[in-house]
Amino acid sequence: MIPEFLVFRQSLIEQDVIKPVIDRIIPLTDINDALEYSHSGHATGKIIISIQPN
Q1: In a 3-state reduction of DSSP, which class is residue 47?
Q2: Is the full-model pTM beyond 0.90?
């Protein structure tokens, strides 16, 4: 069931039926700030942790 759901969800994203909301992208070096922000309850979307150098 899980793989089918992922395929279905991906198709909805590709058709612009649903759109993931990204609140902010935070570098891995600032992981503590990301956790604080997540726990604050102020995030309005996903918090992405970037592992690539800026």
Answers
A1: strand
A2: no
- pLDDT of amino acid 24: 96
Rg (CA), the chain: 14
Closest among 9, 51, 17 to 34, alpha carbons compared: 51
Least Cα distance to 45 among 28, 30, 27, 25 occurs for: 25
pLDDT per residue as tens digits for the range 33-48 = 999 999 999 999 999 9
Q: State how far the alpha carbon of 15 is from the alpha carbons of 2, 10, 19, in Å.
A: 20, 9, 9
